[in-house]
Amino acid sequence: MQKILVARPIFxxxxxxxxxxxxxxxxxxEVLPAxxxxxxxxxxxxxxxxxxxxxxxxxxxxxxxxxxxNMAVGYNNFDMAAFNAANVLGTNTPDVLNESTADxxxxxxxxxxxxxxxxxxxxxxxxxQKWAYDGFLGTDVYGxxxxxxxxxxxxxxxxxxxxxxxxxxxxxxxxxVAPEIExxxxxxxxxxxDLLRRADHVVLVLPYTKENHHTxxxxxxxxxxxxxxxxxxxxxxxxxxxALVEALRTKRIAAAGLDVYEGEPKLNPALLTVPNVVLxxxxxxxxxATRRAMANLAADNxxxxxxxxxxxxxxxxxxxxxxxxxxxx
Length: 329
What we know:
Elements: E1 3-6, H1 12-19, E2 23-26, H2 34-41, E3 46-49, H3 56-60, E4 67-70, H4 80-86, E5 89-91, H5 98-113, H6 116-124, E6 145-149, H7 153-163, E7 168-172, H8 179-185, E8 187-189, H9 192-198, E9 201-204, H10 218-223, E10 229-232, H11 241-249, E11 255-258, E12 277-279, H12 288-305
Parallel strand pairs: 1-2, 1-3, 3-4, 4-5, 6-7, 6-9, 7-8, 9-10, 10-11, 11-12
Helix pairs in contact: 5-7
């Protein structure tokens, strides 16, 4: 029987599904340190991960490993050059989290715009003594301009939500989306500079790549309206968190909402010192239905990639399909 490692705690019923096909080594505790992850992968044919870094050294130490199934859409934790060189397949879990992530992005944007977290902290501290006409004045969302950077599946889901708020939608993407999608979303394609200049609310939904590192830094923040908000539900590293702290502290922009951070789960401690930012711990996909769908899709990908189940040899979500059928090198 083939052996797999499930590197993170997931739903026990998904583990039971995997046990029907494999000998399962399940880490149901804390995140595995790099050396322990490498050791436990040494004799495995496959793995199910959730953000665990897998690079050339790990793959070299696991000569039987043929597939790593990531329980996430993003896969910047995979060194794909190393995967391709070793003929190891990577898979991910797109689509099943689009709507819940868009919901959360919208909530985070609203919370930043209307100063919800800031005012709650103030209330909990016992500071609410009277009503004031200028108390926690925020920024309107209805009738404003939404700027989406990264018009993929989740970006499009956000744009659909904007229709109910009578918002103008502008977007910037690596490439322009199809005209029929633009028409459906009533979205205008613009340059990044134009988007930053015009948008009242900027939402980041682009994948992390070396090219996208610090897509939003000091120069970009300087182009935004002082009344604008910035929401990041994409990946840490897309925003220069230190530059964002300075922009928030000096009121260069009004507020921000962050679900992802550079170096997470650690974060820039200065973010905790500015009141006009809403901070959440990478939970945009955290509904039970969505997380179950992600876990089951990751399991399906692993089962199929290792030649088991009704879709043997045909995983639904290969990242590098060109290695399918090639011998491990």
